[in-house]
Amino acid sequence: MTDSTQTRRPVRLAVDAMGGDLSPGSILDGVARALDADHELTVVLTGAKEVVVPFADVHERCEAHPTTEVIGMDEHPAGAVRAKRDSSIAVGCRLVAEGAVDGFFSAGNTGAMTAAGTLITGRIKGVARPAIATVIPTAGPPVIMLDSGANADVKPEYLVQFALMGAAYATAALGVKEPRVGLLSIGSEATKGSQLVIEAHELMKDVPGFVGNIEGTDITAGTVDVIVTDGFTGNVALKLMEGLSRTLFKELKTAMTSSAVSTLAASVLKPKLTALRDRLDPDATGGAPLLGVNGLVLIGHGSSGERAVTNALRVGAEVVRNDLVEHIKEAIGANS
Question: Is residue 218 over pLDDT 80?
C-alpha cells in the first residue's frame, strides 16, 4: 500500500544515529537511501555532534539535532532513560511528544525505546499498555503479531486493546481493509488455553474481525492478518522463527555446496533462493512500531543495516501518511 509521488504529503522523522550494532555508518547510509527514495521526507538526526552535523550539511532535507549522551545496549532501560535525558533515544522521543517530528526510529536498546516511548512520548488516552507489533512473512501476505516483547505479563483486557491496535496497523501499513484477528493459543476451541487466553477470548468476541483462537502452526500460514498474544509468548515465538530461518538457510547452503552437482543445481536455484531469503528477512520492514503511544515510535533490530533503516523509514512515512495514530485513538475510544 503506497502513495504515489504526486499524493505524498511531507513527513518528518527523527532517527537515532547512535543506535544499533552498526551505527553510525549503516544508519546514515540507510537514511541517505530513504531520502533519495522519498522526496517529501525530512530526517532529523539525533546523536553526537561530530556524527550528525557533517552528514546533515551534505544531505538535503536532513537536519542535525546534536545530543551529548548515548544509552548502551546493556543498560537498564527505564533507569537509563531517566538518567540520560540528553541521550539520542530520549531526545528523539521528546521530539515526537513536542510535535516537532511525526515519528522516531532507533535500532538501539529495545527496552529503552519502549520505556522512552511510554514515559516521554506518552500513552494514547485509554491505552493500558503499549505493545510492539512485528510484521511476519508468510507464504502469502505478511501478518502482524503483537505483543512481541513489551509486556511479559498482561491482563485479558490488554489483549483486547492489542487486537484493536494491531488491526489499525494492518490497515495503515499493509492495506488490509478488514483485518482478521486471531488469539494465539494451544487449540482453536474457545475453552482451550491458559486462564489468560480463555478470559481474553470471551472479551474479544465483539472485536471487529475476531475469528477466534489460532495455534502456533497458524502463525506463518496466513490464517489471520493480526495475531494477538502476550509479550513473553510473542517474543519467544518471534526469536524461534528468526533462529529457525537462519538455521535452515545455513543448512541449505551447506547442502548446495557439498558436491559439484549440488553446486551446479545451486547456481540454477540461486535467484529464487535469494528472493525467498529477502522476503523472509526482517530487514524488509526494518522496524516494529510501539503501538499505543501518542506518536510513531519505531524500534529496529540491534543489527539493523542500511536496508533495514531505509525500509523502516519507508514504512514509517507510509503509516504517518495513513494516520495510524489517529486510527488507533479512534479504535480505543470506540471500545472504551
Answer: yes
The three grid cell numbers given for residue 124, joined into one nine-digit string: 494514547
Closest CA to 115 of 133, 134, 135, 129: 129
The pLDDT of residue 186 is 92
- 17-44 tens-digit pLDDT: 998 888 899 999 999 999 999 999 999 9
pLDDT per residue over 292-331, tens digit each? 999 999 999 888 889 999 999 999 999 999 999 999 999 9
CATH 3.40.718.10 holds for 1-127+292-324 = yes
pLDDT at 92 over 70: yes
Q: How far apart are CA 215 and CA 211, in angstroms?
A: 12
One fold for both 1-127+292-324 and 134-282?
A: yes
The residues, ordered by sequence, that sit 6+ positions from 254 with a Cβ below 8 Å of its Cβ are: none
Domain coordinates of the chain in residue numbers? 1-127+292-324, 134-282
Q: How many CA atoms lie within 13 A of 154 on its CB side?
A: 31
Q: Is a pLDDT exceeding 80 seen at residue 269? A: no
Please give the C-alpha separations between residue 174 and each of 155, 192, 274, in angstroms, as whole numbers.
28, 30, 23
134-136 and 287-291 strand pairing: unpaired
Q: What is the DSSP string of 139-155?
A: SSS-EEEE-SSS-SS--
Residue 61, phi-psi category: left (phi > 0), alpha (psi -120 to 50), beta (remainder): left
Q: By C-alpha distance, which of 84, 70, 219 is closest to 142?
A: 219
Task: Tell me which residue of 318, 27, 332 sits closest to 168, measured CA to CA.
Answer: 332
Whether the CB-CB separation of 303 and 137 falls below 8 Å is answered with no
CATH tag, 134-282: 3.40.718.10
